[in-house]
Amino acid sequence: MRRSKSLVPTLREDPADAEALSHRLMLRAGLVRQLAAGIYVYLPLGQRVLEKINAILREEMNAIGGQEITMPVVHPAEIWQQSGRWEGINEMFKLKDRYGRDLCLGMTHEEVVAWLAAREIRSYRDLPQVWYQIQTKERDEARPRSGVLRTREFLMKDSYTLDPDLAALDKSYADHERAYRRIFDRCGLTYYVVQSDVGMMGGLGSHEFMAPSAAGEDEMAMCAGCGYAANVELARGVPEAPAFPVWTREEVATPNVRTIAEVAAFLAIDPRLTIKSLLYVAKSSGPVFALVRGDHALHERKLARALGEEFRPAHPDEVRAAVGAPVGSVGPVGARVPILADEALKTGTYVVGANREGHHLRGVTPGRDFDCRFTDLHAVTAGEACVTCGKALAVEKVIEIGNIFKLGTRYSVALKAMYLDEAGREQPIVMGSYGIGPARIAAAAIEQLADADGIVWPWSIAPYHVYIVAVSAKDAAQRRAAEEIYAECWGNGLEAVLDDRDERPGVKFKDADLLGIPVRVTVGNSFVKEGLVEVRSRRTRQESRVATDQVVGAIRAVEAQEAPK
After folding, report:
1. pLDDT at 104
2. Across the strands, what pairs with 238?
3. CA 366, CA 391: separation in Å to the nearest integer?
4. Residue 81 exposure: Cα atoms within 13 Å on the Cβ side
5. What domains does the chain contain, in order, with CATH numbers?
6. Which of 114, 10, 134 has the alpha carbon at shortest distance from 66?
7. Which of 174, 264, 308, 401, by CA, is between 20 and 30 Å from 435?
8. Could you tell me which of 53, 69, 99, 105 has the C-alpha nearest to residue 437?
9. String of DSSP letters for 517-556
10. CB of 448 within 8 A of CB of 414?
11. What is the CA radius of gyration of the chain?
């Protein structure tokens, strides 16, 4: 690639509306441009990064027996109605064709795979199967943000396994986990494998691959003692209990006091001695109280699992109608709605709202003073004890870069994807689903490896390997040497950029650092005086001066040093 003839629109300053580091650098390095909220154009360098990642994905999927297919982006409503997912997924793009038939844009392809399997799989002899694709997905995100980390349109490698039974599914699942580890290792990422919630996919269990990053929208809890790790939407911990006073139950006046902080300050007590009473409205069952300790936050995914249905926060008028008091004074005692209480509330006495404006009850014991169902509801925080070994948990921000699901027979039964076993009996195909976002891999690599000067690409996914700079574009000898090195690189399988622009050397060096290409070769004063060129590693910043006939060897030495171990 010659810079003078290429679309690489670099920016000197950070875009004002880009918050995540990866977003800022992808814009500044000319990898992407935003067409609309959550919708991006990938420019030549960004496209090359995706192609490098996709090549790794294909190699590892093929290594476990994967067969690449291409499934449609537009899906008929019928298959989603059969699976039961047509209603209730707010992020689905829905549309009608000219005849009024309902369609949607594919955000995942479990239904299509089950539909295809129902028509093409006949016998146990046809199993197992591994199908995969690398394809654009569409998702109507309410708040697309953080650049390519959360978008409305995105590329995904999604794969699907078809097996005769759960034991075979376990093997397919393990094969994918190992393949995913190899993929992320080859892409130069630091990552964790954690337990996760099955969410809208449903099924028997799932794991996520998480890359630690300050830009991450997810959080994971992990234990250094026993290795326990889980997404906070699933993670459990044992919070430290406060010292409980000996209270008798009594009503106390709390005028103009509504928040937990205000209650604790007014009564001069530890916030951990209060209960946060939150009223929600479940889609089918109606109002329900969710209780967590005053210092804890409710995790809505945990509440959704406990309810088994969707819910929303109650409106102020609904709160008053349900318990006869406004928000800030509500509590579980005497409430005529179902109550779910966090497991941390199983012991102790607390302060709760009295269901009378400006009043609270002191000395309330859950399970004694009101009936409730105890379940895990609070979001785990750093320092809580691990449920397995008792050591302190750490909580870290992460980017989800991949996930794997044991679907079981949820989709095959719904779409009649069956096979005949050895005895001639009809059985449902057992499915697994596995996803990786190539753009998220790119963004995670930037987040984890970038420095103050720009991107630092791992060799395996860098858009090019070598960036060649002739310090003086007007010097014929420098230009000729740079051209020769450029040709030699390409002749030896090294993808190179020749910065042949009539720009100041400082501009070229800054661009080379910003773009993050692993090796910079500089043809400058040393070449004029001694016939030597500089070979510099972007990651380590180590330089060597070599003769022109030694440049390829010096580049290969950097490659060997930076290859995944």
Report:
1. 97
2. 385
3. 27
4. 6
5. 50-72+106-235+395-446 (3.30.930.10), 250-375 (3.90.960.10), 464-562 (3.40.50.800)
6. 134
7. 308
8. 53
9. -SEEEEESHHHHHHSEEEEEETTT--EEEEEGGGHHHHHH
10. no
11. 29
Nearest to 433 by CA among 199, 231, 176, 178: 176
* DSSP output for 250-287: EEEE-TT--SHHHHHHHHT--GGGBEEEEEEEETTTEE
Euclidean distance between the first and final Cα of the chain, in Å? 29
DSSP run (H or E) holding 469: strand 466-470
Contact 514, 29 (CB under 8 A): yes
DSSP string, 328-347: TS--STT--S-EEEEGGGSS
User: What is the pLDDT at residue 200?
Assistant: 66
Give me the helix-helix angle, 44-63 and 166-186, nearest 10°.
Answer: 140
Quick check: 311 and 283 in contact, CB under 8 A? yes
Looking at the chain, the whole-number percentage of residues with pLDDT higher than 90 is 86
Examine the pLDDT at 565 and tell me if it is beyond 70. no
Comparing C-alpha atoms, which of 180, 163, 181 is closest to residue 172? 163
Backbone region of residue 397 per phi and psi (left: phi > 0; alpha: psi in -120 to 50; beta: other values): beta
Q: How confident is the model at residue 205 (pLDDT cuts 50, 70, 90)?
A: confident
* Separation CA 430–CA 445 (nearest Å): 34
pLDDT in tens, 148-180: 998 999 999 999 999 999 999 999 999 999 999
Q: Which helix (H) or strand (E) holds 178?
A: helix 166-186
Does the reported pTM lie above 0.90?
A: no
> What value does the mean pLDDT of the chain take?
94
d(CA 381, CA 240): 11
Which stretches of 52-188 are assigned E, i.e. beta strand?
Answer: 67-68, 74-76, 94-96, 102-105, 129-138, 153-163
Cα-flanking dihedrals φ and ψ of residue 456, to 5°? -130, 95
